[in-house]
Write a structure and sequence with these properties.
alpha/beta, OlefBLtnSynShew, ligase, AMP-binding_CS, GMP Synthetase, Chain A, domain 3, single chain, 7-stranded mixed sheet, 585 residues, AMP-dependent synthetase and ligase, 27% strand
Length: 585
């Protein structure tokens, strides 16, 4: 990188920054370590007739900073300016990084959605968010035309990785049109108030309707601080980035983001050889992977004949859904002694909240298998976790009297600098999920759990997945929680996984009542007995534990419907409909 380019960017670093913007970290990195690698993107080439080869495209910190400056100038010149909202549907690539940082620098609000949420949900997201611009690859533009995404609000179209036939302008043309006067000049970054809207991130909708979470730079800064302090990520590291949003934190941390060739929305389809190759080439020290990918890589890397060692990896961060202890143990055989899988708990609205190392997690197996829930660790610095009574009613103001005692199961409520303050144009959802606590906001996670005497958080499932019944167990109305019940039955050798649902049956008087039913997906690798013997064994398990006492109905399902990204979140709502239709009185 030329000295002139480095010098032009060093002038932007200001120790007394007048507001908040995530990109300040990129400015500092471009000044301090301009020639160090910031991003590398892996590409696989070849066909069914020839061997696949892997190549890589790279950017240094100075190049990423300079290109995003130029692109911010170009977006402004095209009419996309501060305060406007822009849908960004671009696959992980160098363009994804330069575009995202350009949008942040310019104070343009990126709208990030999960393509896996389905056409109907995507259209609703765009109706709600009212984007001014649509920046996307040709495939997304085709869908935009077919399904009329954003037709009432979008005024600016940019095509990434293709020509401008979709309307608007191509990214290449946009960049070529930047005047010589602005192309080499540093972009004057837009500074926002710390709680001002900086981005809209839509939830996946795997447990309900997708909602737009309003992100501020204060939230991004809190996430960066957590990754530095609680996870120990340091400048100079290299991260195998398998999730687009997390990959953006790399350059902000002075860490290179190494993006493998894979569909980030369907990690279960990733080619493990590509990921192993990227780790080896760049000697990655960090990995951010979800449970589905942990299982996929473990199966590929640990076989009966060999173990693929990931000797450069110092840290593995897993988030998105609870990974099974068995899959973590299998995957961990590839890691050096002492290297742990750090399991993180959180949600789009608030992440990360707590963490737990794999060694400590392994020690909780007996409690989990006995119906004690899944331990997700202790709160990270600056996070307060409370448990409140299970209720559907909004809570406007926080009161410490709401806090339950250790060991009592209720809804998980969190407070911290990474907790979002609202949903975008969803006043009802905001009222339902947010509690005012002085100048701060507490978020109701919609998850159930409890805190133990040592302050560790134990997950007991989604609030919406509990089954409240009118039947009496030991003189009390029976309430069943998904994770404790399911983990107990999952200990049966023929059960791959289970799902608790509620169905309606008629009592002796013909009055409908809700009763629990357990859906079962059996382990196909075993010779499963589908007769009375299996059901007798399951009934015996149910009677043995207080958490499952009263569960007497079981149905075998051929293959559970699960979310695409994590391959772990079971669509219990779909199973409940199926169970209601297929059960016998």
């Amino acid at each position: 990188m030329s000295a002139s380019l480095t010098a032009s960017h060093s002038s932007k670093v200001n120790n007394s920054e007048p507001g908040a913007n995530l990109c300040r970290h990129l400015n500092h990195a471009a000044s301090d370590i301009p020639t160090e690698l910031a991003v590398a993107v892996q590409h696989a080439s070849g066909s069914i007739f020839s061997a696949t080869s892997l190549n890589y495209k790279e950017l240094t910190f100075a190049e990423l900073d300079s290109l995003s400056d130029k692109l911010a100038h170009a977006l402004n010149a095209y009419g996309i300016k501060r305060g406007m909202k822009a849908v960004l549907m671009v696959t992980p690539s160098l363009d994804f990084f330069t575009l995202t940082f350009a949008l942040f620098k310019a104070g343009i609000i990126p709208i990030l959605v999960d393509p896996g949420m389905g056409v109907k949900n995507l259209k609703q997201c765009f109706i709600e968010s009212q984007p001014d611009a649509f920046i996307a690859i040709p495939k997304a533009h085709l869908a935009r035309r077919l399904f009329s995404w954003g037709k009432d609000s979008v005024k600016h179209l940019v095509t990434v990785g293709g020509c401008g036939l979709w309307g608007g302008v191509s990214l290449d043309t946009l960049m070529e049109g930047v005047t010589s006067a602005s192309s080499g000049s540093a972009y004057e970054m837009v500074w926002l108030d710390e709680d001002e809207m900086a981005a809209i991130l839509f939830t996946s909708g795997s447990t309900g309707t997708p909602k737009g979470v309003v992100y501020s730079h204060k939230m991004f800064e809190a996430q960066i601080t957590a990754l530095k302090n609680d996870y120990g990520i340091a400048p100079g590291e290299r991260d195998l980035a398998t999730f687009p949003l997390f990959s953006l934190f790399g350059p902000a941390l002075g860490m290179a983001s190494i993006v493998p060739e894979m569909d980030a929305s369907k990690p279960i389809t990733a080619n493990p050889d590509y990921l192993f190759a990227a780790i080896g080439k760049y000697q990655c020290s960090n990995m951010f992977v979800n449970p589905a990918l942990i299982e996929r890589l473990g199966q590929a890397g640990v076989t009966q004949t060999q173990i693929h060692k990931l000797s450069s990896i110092k840290r593995v961060i897993s988030a998105g859904a609870p990974a099974t202890i068995a899959s973590i143990k299998h995957f961990s055989q590839m890691l050096n002694d002492g290297v742990e899988v750090l399991n993180s708990y959180g949600a789009t609205e608030s992440l990360p909240l707590s963490k737990m190392g794999s060694q400590a997690l392994f020690a909780t197996t007996e409690v989990t298998d006995s119906g004690g829930g899944i331990c997700v660790g202790s709160p990270i610095e600056g996070v307060d976790i409370a448990i409140i009574d299970i209720s559907e009613a909004p809570i406007t103001q926080w009161n410490e009297n709401l806090r339950l005692k250790p060991g009592e199961i209720g809804e998980i409520v969190v407070k911290g600098p990474m907790v979002s303050r609202s949903y975008y144009r969803r006043d009802s959802a905001t009222e339902q999920a947010k509690i005012i606590d002085g100048s701060a906001i507490r978020h109701r996670m919609g998850d159930l759990g409890y805190l133990d005497d040592e302050g560790y958080l134990w997950m007991c499932g989604r609030k919406a997945h509990r089954v409240d019944t009118s039947q009496s167990v030991k003189g009390e109305p029976a309430r069943y929680f998904s994770i404790p019940c399911e983990r107990i039955f999952n200990t049966h050798p023929q059960v791959k996984r289970s799902a608790l649902v509620g169905i309606e049956v008629k009592d002796q008087s013909g009055v409908p009542e809700v009763v629990p039913l357990l859906c079962l997906e059996l382990n196909k690798s075993l010779s499963c007995s589908l007769g009375a013997g299996l059901y007798a064994e399951l009934n015996a398990i149910a009677e043995k534990h207080t958490q499952t006492h009263g569960i007497k109905r079981f149905l075998i399902h051929p293959e559970f419907p699960v979310d695409i990204r994590h391959n772990a979140k079971i669509f219990r709502e779909k199973l409940a409909v199926w169970a209601q239709k297929n059960h016998k009185e």
